[in-house]
Amino acid sequence: MVVGADAAGMSAAHQALRTARRTGDELAITVLDRGTHTSYSACGIPYWMAGEVGSVDELVARTAEQHRAAGIDLRLGTEVVAADVAARTVTTAAGETLEYDELVVATGAPAIVPDWALRPDGTPYDMVGPVKTLDDGAAWLDRFDAAGDGAHVVVVGAGYIGVEVAEAALRRGLGVTVVTRGRGLALLEDEMSERVAVALCDAGAEVVLGVEVTGLDVAQDGAGAERVTGVRWEGDQRDADLVVLAIGVRPGTDFLTGSGLETADNGALRPDPHGRVADGVWAAGDCCEVRRRIDDRWVFRPLGTHATKHGRALGDSLAGGELAFQGIVDTSITRFAAGGQYLEIARTGLGRAEAEEAGHDPVTLVTEGTTATGYMPEADPIAVWVMADRDTRRLLGVQVVGGHGAGKRVDTAAAVLWAQGTVDDLAWMDLAYAPPFSSTWDVLQIAARRVAERI
Ligand SMILES: Cc1cc2nc3c(=O)[nH]c(=O)nc-3n(C[C@H](O)[C@H](O)[C@H](O)COP(=O)(O)OP(=O)(O)OC[C@H]3O[C@@H](n4cnc5c(N)ncnc54)[C@H](O)[C@@H]3O)c2cc1C
How many domains does the chain have? Predict the structure, then answer.
């Protein structure tokens, strides 16, 4: 019995079927999901909102019919509200009690909607909401149309979703203000994130850092209906026709309250590398924390790339295989492309504060260069932040902000982190070179070499 029919749940279900087929076992899989879609790319929603992806169908990797044709008993519109792990049953919102032998929790992480974003009776305002599901994406396209030309969007939160939604709104010709309580883009160190803030401003957005939104301004229109007109924080406000909530997600494990299953303080499950949580209970994806290999800590990193790997390892193990999720090195990437600006933004490893917390003596440096040899038309500016440990020379983190070809350079650094390599490994390893792609010493290697020299 799988609860949740997206990245983690369906990866687990299909891998379990594949492994069972290989071993000759028989497996009956039921998947329950409260939503209307399966296996869709939430990651693509901001690009759909921007108009880069033509239709919602392009975001669906596998339809409900395709899952059913593969032998999965998929029941959409079915919300699980409670689980009794001793009796091995789940209860649905419709009051049905369903038995299982093994339960897979793959319920993801719903968007955080703060109280100030809701009416006093707890219902949402029309022009305010998160960007999480395909239904949210469709609602945003309708709201963009309803608000019309010249409308102003306030995006609350400057994580990668905040940046991607700001890009979408700018590309649609809307006015944009990004407000965040942090000092910059959540993924990056200050000296890197300020480059993103500058690009947002150069593209025509306003960026307000270090403030905590506390409420909405609401007015009655001529017909007596309530309309959101602005966003407030201490000492200031901005007019707004639309308000995007991009302030994070939290593990969707409320239905396990009282089940006796242990969770972290944030509600996340902490499965072993095979996905096991307890006898007869498994979990994968955004409802879980993952183990970060660099400092051997549990961290909450709700990303699709983890959810699919996590789900696959779980499905295999559940059906008798041995695949294990290997943990993460905290790699992520996004893009900001609007108003004549183009930036690839990526990181891997720890931030400075995390490194210090883990007992390292970090040495950091930002190096500027180009993505190709300077005389080539492809050469775009790039900045690379590298952090290594002074005593062991171990590479601890790399962040990249730059033009075309900049972002995926972090994957090279991620490979070094994965193998617990040093800053010297990154500086001296054999990377591909030709003028359209890099200089003879790639900028990543120059940045690593400079940190090595500083140590
Ligand atoms: C706008 C956006 C952009 C993103 N971009 C990226 C990106 O570029 N790269 C990246 O790696 N990740 C990205 N992500 C994150 C990625 O989408 C998630 O990590 C991934 O979808 C997690 O998969 P999951 O299966 O764990 O959870 P989900 O995809 O959230 O699926 C959980 C499913 O469980 C169902 N469910 C929940 N509770 C219940 C219940 N009680 N009963 C029944 N069903 C239930 C839900 O309806 C849902 O279908 C993005 C996310 C968003 C929102």
Answer: 3
